[in-house]
Amino acid sequence: RVRIPLPVSNILWEHCIRLANRTLVEGYANVKKCSNEGRALMQLDFQQFLMKLEKLTDIRPIPDKEFVETYIKAYYLTENDMERWIKEHREYSTKQLINLVNVCLGSYINKKARQKLLAAIDDIDRPKR
């Protein structure tokens, strides 16, 4: 056995937690359909994950906790709020943003409104190219 110093252990935990949280958001971005019950389960699953993490480690605040919570909450946004949200949250990938538009609002908005939101995402993505 090799003892790992606490500062090193904390850094390892921080990186593992950050990667797990980023992976959760990526997983949510791969969802093809999502009901209201499914969205509630996303929140419940993440809360369970956080409770288990808090028992395993003393790292506070949990790295990227807001990153996951904000993405899950975006599933509840209306069309008008979604456009503003997209412009304010550049930390998410283009794929993650497109999924929000298609899955969250896909069956609730018309084609023109969807194209407008997808164009807003494309405008944000342009400087990256």
TrEMBL record:
* Any single GO CC term annotated in Swiss-Prot or TrEMBL for this entry: cytosol
Domain of life assignment:
Eukaryota
- Which GO MF terms are attached to this record? SNARE binding
Which residue intervals define the domain Syndetin C-terminal in the entry?
3-122
Biological processes, Gene Ontology terms:
endocytic recycling; retrograde transport, endosome to Golgi
PANTHER family linked to this entry: SYNDETIN
Name under which the protein is recorded: VPS50 protein
Taxonomic lineage from the root:
Eukaryota, Metazoa, Chordata, Craniata, Vertebrata
Q: What is the gene name?
A: Vps50
